[in-house]
Design brief:
With about 260 residues, the protein is of the alpha+beta class. Helix content is about 60%, strand content about 15%.
Length: about 260
């Protein structure tokens, strides 16, 4: 016998017993008051009527109530499962969105996400400085030591850049061996120490290859600052011009202004 059926039988039986007791109680109190006599047939009817009516009716009512209770519990369980699944789905979606914003190799913001974040930062009334950073002679690393060594070099440069800037600054990989940093609320004249720190940290890097060779790395940096009134495209173009000048002057340096101020 299932627990459900056992519970219904017990409840219906208890209700039937109470009905019989109530019927007998009414018979012995009301019938004499009406001048009647409770004889054998009356006693039998007081027992049979509740037994034949109360038990099936009670069993049906209790079974419906029990099924309703189980249905409500199942709905509550499904609701909890739905909430849990919704939470997991939201977390997975957030993780995918966050993953889509970052470069798969270096973990930095990818080009689109970085430029969007810089554009948002420039929308205020503050100032800031954009650094375009290019790994020097990177093609030689790939050609001589292979792409795995080149990938290790890119990851090392990205980690060095991220460790040299402030927590509030933005950093991203624009593509290939080109990186960028946006120094929020920092004028270009104040960007020299950070640019110099990036140069110094990268200079100290050594990449060990599978053949046992050690690769030294350097970067070139072009900077452009703004205090409002310029577009992101204009800022990128100015920084790119200074980056080109740093390359022409021998690489491994940062050009902050077009008149030759540099952090070497």
């Amino acid at each position: 016998m299932s627990p459900f059926l056992r519970k219904i039988i017990v409840k219906a039986s208890l209700a039937t017993v109470l009905s019989i007791a109530a019927s007998l109680g009414l018979a012995v109190t009301i019938v004499p008051l009406l001048g009647g006599v409770v004889d054998g047939n009356a006693w039998l009817m007081c027992v049979l009527c509740p037994l034949l009516i109360a038990w099936p009716v009670s069993a049906w009512q209790f079974s419906q109530a029990e099924r309703l209770r189980e249905t409500r519990n199942e709905i509550a369980r499904l609701h909890r499962e739905l909430e849990r699944a919704h939470g997991e789905l939201s977390a997975a979606h957030a993780a995918l969105v966050e993953k889509a914003r970052h470069d798969g190799m270096t973990g930095m913001l990818n080009r689109e996400s970085f430029l969007a974040a810089v554009r948002q930062a420039m929308a205020g009334e503050g100032r800031g400085t954009l650094l375009l950073i290019d790994a020097d002679h990177f093609k030689r690393i790939n050609d001589r030591f292979g792409h795995p060594a080149g990938d290790d070099a890119l990851r090392a440069v990205a980690q060095a850049i991220a460790g040299a800037i402030r927590p509030e600054d933005l950093c991203g990989r624009l593509g290939g061996e080109e990186f960028a940093v946006y120094l929020d609320r920092l004028a270009v004249a104040e960007a020299g120490p950070i640019a110099g720190r990036i140069l110094d940290v990268v200079r100290r890097l050594r990449i060990e290859t599978a053949s046992g060779s050690s690769i030294a790395l350097t970067v070139s940096i072009g900077a452009a600052g703004h205090a409002g009134g310029v577009t992101l495209n204009e800022l990128v173009a100015e920084a790119d011009e200074k980056l080109y000048k740093a390359k022409m002057l021998g690489r491994n340096r940062a050009i902050l202004t077009l008149d030759g101020i540099e952090a070497a």
